[in-house]
């Protein structure tokens, strides 16, 4: 692996999705590594229920994972489209609260160490993915599951939705070679033989959600209906935040339109 860098345009794209270089004021954030402790996770969620507009801890925890899923999305965007490794270890991430003008809680992520490396082999990229998923995200999921009693099926689908968006979005593709690499990396992420990348799973926790897109009444484009509900509709004024792929509404609309 070689020392490398990102262009200002690439850093700008990461910033657009809430990833920043540098360290914020100590009083403004929390190290992601602290969330690997069950009691600290509970305290973190309880302290932010009102800020999130959540009705209970399960809703708050699901929302946290929907926001935290961008660690996976941005990590894989950089790895696949730019061939770059970001330091996304829990010890290197700081979360800072932010609520936008629509009332959405959108924590910002700061990279304490913003150095970047270039992958020089597939084995290096595979090692990065194991560190990202099995040694980081799966551990966060485990803490949430134990502390809030929220199904890891919901939590993994919260991650899968944004990863699918990254790999089904041609906006990040600049040439034919990159298109081929995108298809190849996506296939590897969904490969049943790579379930060990994500933790101790007999089944790949992403591939179960990669279902056929369908037509739903009221929506122009076909969508992939979620298998689990993320509880966004339970947020304060939640109907405006309900996912367009919500299983509660999409299946009803499909039945009435058949």
Task: Report what the structure shows.
There is one protein chain. A 4-stranded mixed β-sheet has the order 2-6-5-3. A 3-stranded antiparallel β-sheet has the order 1-7-4. It is globular, with a radius of gyration of 18 Å. It has 2 domains: 2-208, Transferase(Phosphotransferase), domain 1; 211-258, no CATH class. The chain is built from 7 helices and 7 strands. By secondary structure, it is α+β, with helices and mostly antiparallel strands. Mean pLDDT is 88; it is low at 252-258.
Termini separation (Å)? 53 Å
Number of strand elements: 7
Average predicted local confidence, pLDDT: 88
CATH topology of the largest domain: Transferase(Phosphotransferase), domain 1
Oligomeric state of the chains in view? single chain
- Note the overall shape: globular
- What is the number of helical segments per DSSP (H or I, 4+ residues)? 7
Largest sheet: 4 strands, mixed
| Strand fraction | 5-15%
Low-confidence stretches: 252-258
Structural class: alpha+beta
Helical coverage, percent range: 40-55%
Order of helices and strands: EHEEHHEEEEHHHH
Strand order of the largest sheet: 2-6-5-3
Number of domains: 2
Radius of gyration: 18 Å
Q: CATH first level of the largest domain: which class?
A: Mainly Alpha
CATH architecture of the largest domain: Orthogonal Bundle
